[in-house]
Design the sequence.
């Protein structure tokens, strides 16, 4: 996961917004700003315009849009950022193509979007826990762009045993049925391309009425 650092510090002419590379030696972004004071919301907006996002985990840890005062430099603020393209990439390099993907891989991939592995682990655990509990309680779970999962009750029945040629009694059972959504199926069979820079299960915008 590539996580960078953005710094907004006061200068003699206002402020300067910078995004430092992983080595902190090169500036990936360097913008002079004619501000009289630090404006966290505006700084975040500028980062978004230039392809950087503040992870949601960082935003919840601070009351100032994720920005924290620098302990080493006066009138300077910093925040972790990730490139928007990497944060929303549908083809994360952390998940190998054609391999079996387990929960650990999902957590690592979600971490690239949230900027925190602990937050990603909690999110993945919470989503699957809620899904399992809903289905166990007899509910149908439907996620637009993904599909639906629901419990299916099968009544007791009499079946034919091909080995003996006789009939056997089959007890009533409850199983699980998954139905992929139309968009999901289109992405898998290649009739629809994976979006870049946005969610693969994002709901399609409504067509405006004439």
Sequence:
């Amino acid at each position: 996961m590539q996580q960078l650092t953005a710094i907004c510090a006061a200068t003699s002419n206002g402020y300067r917004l910078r995004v430092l590379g992983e080595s902190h030696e090169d500036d990936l972004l360097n913008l002079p700003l004619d501000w009289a004071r630090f404006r966290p919301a505006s700084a975040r907006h500028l980062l978004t315009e230039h392809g950087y996002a503040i992870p949601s985990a960082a935003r919840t840890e601070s009351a100032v849009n994720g920005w924290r005062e620098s302990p080493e430099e006066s009138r300077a603020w910093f925040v972790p950022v990730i490139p928007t393209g990497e944060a929303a990439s549908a083809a994360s390099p952390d998940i190998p193509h054609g391999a079996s993907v387990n929960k650990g891989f999902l957590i690592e991939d979600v971490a690239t979007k949230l900027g925190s592995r602990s937050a990603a682990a909690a999110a993945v655990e919470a989503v699957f826990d809620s899904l399992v509990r809903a289905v166990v309680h007899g509910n149908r779970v439907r996620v637009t762009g993904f599909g639906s999962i629901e419990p299916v009750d099968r009544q007791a029945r009499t079946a034919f045993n091909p080995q003996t040629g006789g009939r056997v009694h089959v007890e009533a059972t409850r199983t699980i049925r998954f139905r992929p959504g139309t968009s999901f199926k289109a992405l898998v069979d290649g009739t629809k391309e994976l979006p870049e820079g946005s969610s693969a299960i994002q709901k399609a915008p409504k067509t405006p009425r004439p």
Summary: Helices lie at 40-49, 56-60, 84-87, 103-114, 117-136, 182-189. The chain has two domains: 4-87, 103-189.
